[in-house]
Amino acid sequence: MYHHTLLPRRLRALIPSILLVLLTLLPAAAPLRSAGVIYVVPGGAGAQTGADWASAKDLQAALQSAASGDQIWVKAGTYKPTTGADRSANFQLKSGVAVYGGFAGTEDSLSQRDPATHISALSGDLLGNDSGAVTSSNPTRSDNSYHVVTSNGTDATAVLDGFTITAGNANGASFEVQGGGLLNVKGQPVLRSLIFTNNSAVTSGGGMFNYISSNPTLHDSSFINNAADDNGGGLSSSGNSVFTSSITMSRMIFSGNTAPFGGGIFSESSDLIINHAVFRSNGATMVGGGIVSNYGHTIIAQALFNGNTAESYGSGMAYYKADATISQVTFSANWSKNNGGALVNDEGSPHIRNSIFWGNQGGQIYNFPVGNAPDVQFSLVQGGYITGTHILAADPLFADADGADNIAGTPDDDLRLQAGSPAIDAGSNAFIPSDLTDDNHNNDVNETAPFDLDSNPRLDGAIVDLGPYETQIKVRLISTPPPAGTYGSSYSHTFTTTAVLPVTYSVTAGILPPGLALNATTGLLSGIPTAAGTYSGIIITAGNADGSANQTFAILIHPAALTITANNKIRIFGAPNPPLTASYSGFVNGDTPDNLDTPASLTTTATITSPPGGYPITASGAADANYDITFIPATLTITSGRTYLALVSR
Questions:
Q1: What is the value of pTM for the model shown?
Q2: Residue 516 and residue 206: Cα distance in Å, rounded?
Q3: What pLDDT, in 10s, does the model give residues 467-491?
Q4: Residue 106: partners with Cβ closer than 8 Å, 6 or more residues away
Q5: Within 10 A of 600 (CB to CB), how many other CB atoms are there?
Q6: Could you read off the pLDDT of 198-222 as tens digits, one per residue?
Q7: Alpha-carbon span 158 to 187, nearest angstrom
Q8: I need a labelling partner for 500 at 20 to 30 A (CA). Which of 76, 148, 328, 591 fits?
Q9: Alpha-carbon distance values, 317 to 221, 302, 379, 460 (Å)
């Protein structure tokens, strides 16, 4: 197969000199000053102090002036490392500085940005003339930056978040042959919400190159249509026996990347942790359309390999003397000219659990006779796997294995499981991967994975499914608790479940507030409450042929607001007090004063002998369980005879 390290000889020979040169490129410490936000727009604006959007800096100037603790907010637009033709210019990240893209240019809060709508692009196309294929030899890319972004020497406080990185072309000499999109040497940056696209390299890492003692983390990012002439079309990570590297990735997409070795990812003496990822339509002209891993340790959990190709071996993954753990992964419709349509192993020791291998051209799992065979347990393998344990070989019944276009291995393939699939509840809970990247943000990476590739619960029912998707056919109520209501006001709340098949809803314990009813088919609880109060211990049950689930809750029905306003009165001095009356505002459900549990009492301090003047009329005493009552007083005016006649004649 490939009894060499898959790292091309000409690159291996350059490693010592590359290392020395790259170490000289580590950034100098930034000057000290107070931290804050630096605003950036294309070309800068106004006085270019960076103090606000109206006086924003350009990105390169902002990076150069940024101090530890700063945030750089970058408005949508295209940014190039230089306005000139210096191909070695790049955007160098800094420790302690977080760079955020995706702003419209009006925001005053980080949470207001939207990178998907307001695209901030970092481009190496210095002349703006790129056309044709994404290759290092394309003449229209001969002016492009060798690296669009560098993060050399940074620690984990360097952040790049919300950008498209494009048009890097690492086709220079010495160290300028890898990492067209991003070059990371001895760096640990945090990279989030990035799209690496249309970058190229003459040797390694068209999209990104990670080298010696580098440990970045990548989240919610994509490598699309990047290319390398030797290895790692999307990403390449290399170390050696002294300076190892590692990359931790979650919620990733690798699509359309190409290289001779490792179309999506190439890893040499480097550890990979990949959690929640899709590898689709990546290609290798030699080995490993999706991933090549040599010598390092790889953990891949909850991933999909679909439509990847290799002209030689291992269209999905290829291992050489590498330790690997593969769990909750599906390989389908990958194509290899020779063996290992899904996976090829040469002197490695992959441990495969809770996974599916189906419909791959060139066979499913191929092991070279030297070394250990993959250890496969609780998995579905087309044609079986003779040395495995708990192996299924039946059709997994994907929802739509070839998609609407009827071509397997394309983006519209739906590799979730149909009801009745033998892969449902066929795994082992002991092999559910740990929460490698803390998906539920509870600071516990040792618990079992809480979510599947669709962000649904990883375990739905008693036993885990095979593959990255957990079929949500079991009944589980997922609606929020019912809200409070108000006496006499319209009420509406809908219960929902995870079930695929229709369910029937019912009240199995407790009593609903009077006036409310539950629709057994839709789960809609609605009506007009006719009695205020707290109704506890209500249990709603939803069930079908797959099972049932219930939810216990209380519903609070608030009293309606009622205002009782005493009416103003007038009488002449010496006359008896007139009848005291009140007005009512807020009755609902057809109620009147006669419906109050306790009627209102109206009193005044005036007596028949009280002299002319104003005397309070007080409303009080009214009470009712269905009303929250507010009282408003009035005035009894006692006048002399003449004044009274004047007042009543108006």
A1: 0.73
A2: 62
A3: 999 987 667 777 788 999 999 999 9
A4: 53
A5: 19
A6: 999 999 999 999 998 899 999 999 9
A7: 9
A8: 328
A9: 20, 15, 17, 29
